[in-house]
Every structure is written in C-alpha cells, then in structure tokens.
Amino acid sequence: MKPIAVFQHTEVGAPGAVLPILGALGREVEMVRIVDGQAVPADASRFSGLVFMGGYMGAHDPLPWIAQELALIRDADARGIPVAGHCLGSQLVALALGGEVHPHDRPEIGWCEITAEASDTARAWWGEEHAGKVLQTFQWHADTFTPPPGAVPLARGACCANQAFVLRDRHLLVQSHLEMTPALVELSMARNGQQLVRQNALANPAASAGGDLLNDLPKRTQEMHALLGRLYARWVVGCG
C-alpha cells in the first residue's frame, strides 16, 4: 500500500492528531516538511493520498513551494488520488481545483461553532452522530475560500460560511483546525496571541474571549479528534 503524504508548512501547523488517526486506520504516513526546506514531490504517483496542513502564509503568496503544491494537487486530482486540506491546506486545494481564496471580512480565531449539514453526503462523511449538529472547532485564519464547482458542503459557520466541503466524493476541504492537540493550542497562543488580543479589542465576534482559549483543552481537542477521525475514516476509503 502506498503511503499518504502529509505536508507541514510551519512549526505551529504541525499535523497533530492527523498522524495517530491515520495510523489507527492502518495507513503509513510520509511527512513532507516544507517547514524544514524539504522539496515538494514532482508528482503524486507514489502516494495513495495527500494531506496539506495549515500555515500563516496565504495561498496567493509568491513562494515557490506554493506553486509546486498547487501543481501537485492538480496532478493528484487527475490521477484520482484523494487530497485533504486543513485551513491553509483547504484553501490551496480549493484554489488548485477551480475555487477562489480571498480575505474574509474578519479573522476567525479560537473556539468557533460550525453546523454540520444533514444531507446524505454529509451523513456519509460525519456519521449520523454528527450530521446536522452544532460542532465546536478551533480556528485561526484571516482568509476564506470559495469552493470549486461541484463541491458539496459538509458544514457552515455563522461567522465564516464556508467551512467544510467534499469534492468528487474524495477531496476533503476543512477550514477548521480539527487536528489541534492541547500543546498545539498552547503554542498557537504563545506565538500568535497578540492577534487574538487585537481582535478582542475590536470586539470581533469571531474571536474567542482571551481567557477562554486555553480552557478545558483535553476535552475540547478530544471531541475534535472524534470528528476528524470520522472524516478520515471516510476519506481513506478512496486511498486504495
């Protein structure tokens, strides 16, 4: 079985729960650490799936590896290889496959609620236990994406509508950071906490109260991992 490639763009954008979830699903993972200068593979042929993590950069930034990842996503799509993206990763997948990425009207930072769709497609991906429900997720982004033509919504948010989509029943786009561990939430606050302070001063309704961001992290992150595990259990079906 070919490995699944997981692309890490920054230290804070580590894969977190993605690795143990894929391992529990019996999948071998090969890390591609862009953060450490590792090269983007020339094509997707030796992988069964591709997962792109988040990062502070934008999908339109003139970084060589961004253009290379966009080309790799298109190559995977042409080969029928499933692709998944988290935050920046979801925006890269959207942009590569015909969608758009642009600044949102306000940053979304911290614990935010999204509502899972209740369609047949959403039930197949979320499971009956999550479809149609309000879900708490962790977010940290200033951009948003318009999904590619034909994408089916899996979840929407009150402050940022486009949250999760599936395309061609194999590509998964998730704006939220469902992969976060307590340590990664704490690292995000340590490195980028001033962004949250500024948004709180602006009374941004899409930003967590500063004192709440670090509360009850084991329970909150475990609940997100259950959501992500359900999505990936469906996603890996297409990975051969």
From TrEMBL:
Q: What protein is this chain from?
A: Type 1 glutamine amidotransferase
Q: Which residues cross the membrane?
A: none
What sequence ranges are listed for the domain Glutamine amidotransferase?
Answer: 22-191
Give the first-level EC class, as a single word: hydrolase
Q: Which GO terms describe its molecular function?
A: hydrolase activity
From the broadest rank down, the organism's phylogenetic lineage runs:
Bacteria, Pseudomonadati, Pseudomonadota, Betaproteobacteria, Burkholderiales
Query: At the top level of its lineage, which domain of life is listed?
Result: Bacteria
Give the Enzyme Commission number: 3.4.-.-
> Cross-referenced CDD domains, in alphabetical order?
GATase1_1 (cd01741)
- Gene source species: Variovorax ginsengisoli
Q: By its UniProt entry, which SUPFAM superfamilies does this protein fall under?
A: Class I glutamine amidotransferase-like (SSF52317)
Q: Which UniProt keywords apply?
A: Glutamine amidotransferase, Hydrolase
